[in-house]
Amino acid sequence: MKIIKQILSSTCILLLCSFTFANDSITTQNTAETIYDIFPGTIIIKNKQLVLYRCTSSGYQYPLHFNHMKDEQRIRELIKLYPKFWLTLNANPFEEKGRYRLAVEAIADEHLGESCHLNDALPPLES
Predict the structure, then answer these.
(1) In this structure, is residue 73 part of a structural domain?
(2) What is the annotated signal peptide range for this record (predicted)?
(3) Are 13 and 54 in a shared domain?
(4) What one-character-per-residue DSSP string does the chain give?
(5) What does pTM read for this prediction?
(6) Model pLDDT for residues 75-115, shown as the tens digit of each residue
(7) Spatial contact of 64 and 79, defined as CB atoms under 8 Å apart
(8) Residue 51, domain CATH
C-alpha cells in the first residue's frame, strides 16, 4: 500500500509540473510583441513612392511601406498642405532587393513648417 501511495504521489507531481510548464509556453507565445524604433525625417516622393529622408548627417533614404493606410493618407495630405515639415515615425527596418526600407506602424510626431536637416537651418554660403 505504501508503494502505491508513493507512485500516485509521484504521478500527481509530474502531472502538475507538466500542466504548469505547458501553460507557461502558451503564455510566452501569446505575449510576444513587435518593438518599433523611431525614425525622424522629412518625406520626399520618388517614383510615386513615399521615402523618409532621415534627419542625420548620413541622410539615408528609406522607402516607406505602411501597416495602416491612414498613415500613408495623412502623409500625402501633409505634402499637399505644407511645403516644409518633418515627422517621427515608429517603424521597423527591413531589407529588400539590397536596400533598407521601413514598415511604418505609426506617425509619432508631426513638426509642421519646420525642417530637421542642418543644411536647411544654415544660411546659404556666398562666394
Answers:
(1) yes
(2) 1-22
(3) no
(4) -HHHHHHHHHHHHHHHHHHHHHHHHHHHHHT-----EEEEEEEEEETTEEEEEESSSS--EEEEEESSHHHHHHHHHHHHH-SSEEEEEEEEEEEETTEEEEEEEEEEEEEET----HHHHSPPPP-
(5) 0.69
(6) 999 999 999 999 999 999 999 999 999 999 999 999 999 99
(7) no
(8) 2.40.50
